[in-house]
Structures are given as structure tokens and as C-alpha cells.
Amino acid sequence: MLHTPVHRKVGGNLAFGTSPNDPVFFLHHAFLDKLWEDWKTQHPTADPYLPAIDSNGHGLNDTLVFNNASHPAPWTGSWTVKQTLDPTAFGYEYV
Hints:
two-stranded antiparallel sheet, 2 strands
């Protein structure tokens, strides 16, 4: 897996729940997003996200909560996993 080991190896804020405070967090996640977009382009008939249904709140139609009392975010919106699969909906694309 490409995700978690990077958080641990870099250390500092990146190793904890405060990782979004570290600019490396955004570099890391932007690159993972690009890799995922590349994979989806190379595999257009594959499901872009699995599992479609998940009991842990990570299913395709589950709502992602970014802003609540214990974890405030600079935006108030929430999206479903499905709504986040197309980066052009958020005004950007990978080329």
C-alpha cells in the first residue's frame, strides 16, 4: 500500500492525526489522487471505487464528513464518496 507508510516514514506532523497541518500531506495526497486518476483512465471498465456498500461508512453512497465540532474544516460542505470520484466536479483535472 502506498498511503500509510509514507505518513509513518516522513514522521513529524505527518505521522499523527494532525497530518493535514503538514504541507507534505497535500503533496502526498495529490500524488495519490493522480495515481488513482491514471489508473481509472487505464481501466475505464473497472469499478472506480470498491466496496459499493461498506458497514464502516466508506461505501460509494456514504457521506464523507469533513467538518464537525471535534474536527472543524474550512468548508461546511459534505459529499458522498461517489461525488468525489470525478475531479472535474471540483474544478481541476490531471493531465
